Amino acid sequence: MASESRISQVATTIPVRNVQDLAACDAGELTAEALERYIRPDIDKDAVLYEHAGELPVVDLGRLLNPQHWDEEAAKLRSACEEWGFFQVLSHGVPEEVMVNIKRDIQEFFQLPLDVKNAYAQTPGDLQGKSLEDYCDELKKVAHSIVEAIAKILNIDPELTSDKYVVQVLRMNYYPPCMSMPEKVLGFSPHSDGSFLTILLQVNSVEDLQIKRRHDAWILVKPHPEALLVNVGDLLEIMTNGKFKSIEHRIIINPRKERLSVSAFHNPKFDGVVSPVTCTPTEKLLYRTVKVEDYITHHMSNKLDGKRALDHVKVF
């Protein structure tokens, strides 16, 4: 538990008005000053390739765990981590009841009055009760299976990624609609995750997640309704010496509908280190060994700006 509690202490947050409350206020209150921090005039600087929205790789976890299909599915997983940094996971084994319950409870949570939500935030151990606990337990199994497969693909000691060295942190996300200027507002600025792996559950069907591909173009993610979305984090990129890529992603804003999701960040424990263990003697070393706490602190303490946080540990 010490590792989990320290995560909330590594960086301070800027006090800003609750965005759900801001979105619900009268148009007269939406002054330029109130909206300034959310407006991105360069949002359309790079192209969005909507025609590629259905191309995100799919990995079938059931087949990945079946020795008869291992080679084929492992090749898909490797390709997804090397070329995309994002993939969908089907046959993940999370019971439908658990998925239904967590989605329902998150939607109900964000419908609560602001003061009630704030009270919950002071006691996260009670937040959403059993549904959240059940979801966390199931997600740990999914993460374990994926990480174990990655260790096998990379031919590294499974002990380096075993469960006794990891911690999981959940974040519930709410992105309100913006009718006035959705084309100039981002729900989340472009960034890569400072995790080892991130597993995302889309609570509703709003498709506002975009990932950056080659030539600085964005692709809209259209996830399968039964899939979990998984992306490579910076710490996995460091461990693989850049072979597996953490990818920039951002959240655009829907003009009419809110977007709800829950992100699970799968990390090594804070007192551990991450090294580019897959680097061979003939490869150029891209990243230095870094303490997990130092990297996450650096990532959370700085403005989101693409993959710039990784510059902190690059070998130049």
From TrEMBL:
So what family is this one in?
A: Belongs to the iron/ascorbate-dependent oxidoreductase family.
Query: Can you name this protein?
Result: Fe2OG dioxygenase domain-containing protein
Residues forming the Fe2OG dioxygenase domain are: 165-268
- Record carries keyword Acetylation: no
InterPro entries membership: DIOX_N, IPNS-like_FE2OG_OXY, IPNS-like_sf, Oxoglu/Fe-dep_dioxygenase_dom, Plant_2OG-oxidoreductases
Give the Gene Ontology MF terms in alphabetical order: metal ion binding; oxidoreductase activity
**The UniProt record lists the keyword Acyltransferase:** no
Sorted alphabetically, which keywords does the UniProt record give? Iron, Metal-binding, Oxidoreductase
